[in-house]
## 1
Amino acid sequence: MLLKAISKDYLRSLVVSLIAVVIVVPLFCVCIIIPLGLVNQPNTSIWVLIVPAVGFLATLLGGGLGFFALSLYRRKHWLDGIFTPLGLQGSLYMLTGRQYRGAIQGREVSIRFYRGPTLDLYISAPLQTRLSITHKDMASPALARMFGHQAMSPDIPGVNDLNIFAMDENWARSLLAGAEAQSIIRRLLDAGASWALLRQIHFQPEALYLRLYRNKNLFKYDITPEEGRQWLNDLLALARVAESLPAPQTTAEESSLEQMARTGSMAKTSTYVIIAVIIGTLVGIPLCGVAITALILLLDK
């Protein structure tokens, strides 16, 4: 399945590149190549080169910014329709994503949709332990490294086909032995099954969250308002079941990295880097055009 997803990633990149070539190459020929040929003709003004070149740069920048703005608007409209009716406040996340924060049933809720595509749905659940659950064919080596060992063998009917990584294995067995917990976990691991390659449930100190990651389709992925509401309700129900059990005996404190990921503060630094790259691109391309034009004028003399 992973190889299939990787091949889809390459195919998606190839399609986007081909579309860019089909648009940019003819435009480059008309605005740059042809004027370069004409400017060498007798009595031809240098403006024959300058005006199309400026137009070429303006078209690229304007088209790119226009497409970027349209994508942001469509994503905002789509995701706001899912999560704002639940009482959550939406905002921009890492320039291209969206995040939603608020409280539901007395618990802090944080939802983020960003590049991947990745959807993280966090709810507060101060159990002070770590537990990760996923399908056997969807576990990443990073999970094993995080827990320092391979998946546990719960030997519990109904969950033997799952990969389970637990800090406190006895507590995990108690949770997974319950019919209600098993039913909720099954529903959450089927969330976004039409598009999400990786579907994982994670308990960490201070939070419980569902992660849907990577698109196994070429382009299409979707989340309906009903799905978003159901996923949050299931997370809330799973947290209640987990908290009704005796507390885990093996516990941990939330790391600074986990806190940054949960609260979304990690995105601030990333946003500054992205903004710097965009500004550098917007300023650098015109400056290159000016430098090339100045060089041509000097050589023409």
## 2
Amino acid sequence: MQRLIGAGSAIALGLSLAGGTYAAPSFDIIGQDFVGGVRFINGNVRPSIAEDGTVVFVANDVTPAISAPMFFSGDGVNPLSQAKFTAAGYDNVSTVKIDSAGNLAYVGTRTAAPHDFRGVYRTTTTGSFYSTVFEVEQVFGPPPQPNPQNRLAMSGNGTIAFSNIQDGDGDLYTAAQGAPAQVLRAGSGTFFNNQQFDVNDSGAVAIQMEYTDPNNGLSRGILVFDTPGEGLAGIETAVERTGVGVQPKLAMNNLGQVAFILESNITIQYFNPPLPGGGALAGTQSLTPGVYMSTPSAFGTPFSFTKIADTSGAFESFSEIRLNDNGTIVLEASVEVSPGNFETGIYTGGDPIADELVRTGKTININGSDNFFSIVRLGDLNHQDQLTFQTSDFNTTDQIVWRVNNVPEPGAMVMMMGLAGVQVMRRRSAK
């Protein structure tokens, strides 16, 4: 009689026989309330992950007298590293990013006399040094220039991007690891307020931004800048010429692809010539609400795209998106689990059942233990198909920072389960 095959081995063997390269996702606990020197994890700062799988998050420590917030970093095996930024005079951290060399970049406040500063800073996982990338003195009255936004993007090689653009004043910056910040695009009479952005290893930035369109007036789009000072004639776009109320979330990879979330119907009109404006209408491009993978094209020309997910089924909305060089897309989304009952989950594609990693409102068995999540927050995705997210539950009040390995591409979960089923059937027929 043929030896019986366990469920995990069945999946691995099935994938091997099919010639695939998929492996089932696995989950590691990186940080947890009241474990490893952590007291309370700060759920307002999303955890970040480096290319080597190291995760950083913000939490208060267990110092008996005064529990202070600090950066905790870990790989799931060794003890957590600590960078006590409050002891170095920093506070009010809104975002933190990490690279594989153990360098951290964050947005926070530096205490000083007579006025504090709000800025973008660097340190290490151990807090061995602190340096300023950009900061603005918090004087009484209007600041000398706009404060940096609470957003910060970092690529796999440690290149960061940040912005202090406000109504056309301020700048979009990039800074390679160990190098000073440089202005990639100044706010101006053409380029105005921005929201989300992402940066890749080459220093290119995809940014959701208001701009003055020569054929549409004040508009919003996903604009891609890769050379300092570029104007409309030199850039590519994934979305353009929409109303300012259209505010897509986005992510970009090193291939220049942009994935984005669209919450409303749009129709983009194209003109010939697109610049300087006033050309003849030369076609349109319409998109409906959903999640898209796109390849940007020169300003004023149609771009190619593929729809990944939409709200025609159980998905009610999408709130966050991540993309890597393997084409893996991860979504934080709201899903209707019963009429009028919505839960939040993390998904790797457009099927709210087959592509679900975790979600709130249900018991999920992870590593042999049952978990019930009341809050799920998506962190970052690296190019090794590793993902980090943070959870909380109403049962124990514990917060946990997780790392997922082998994050599957859309549909891969179905393939793995299907192949596992094939192997189980073969096992039974061999008895």
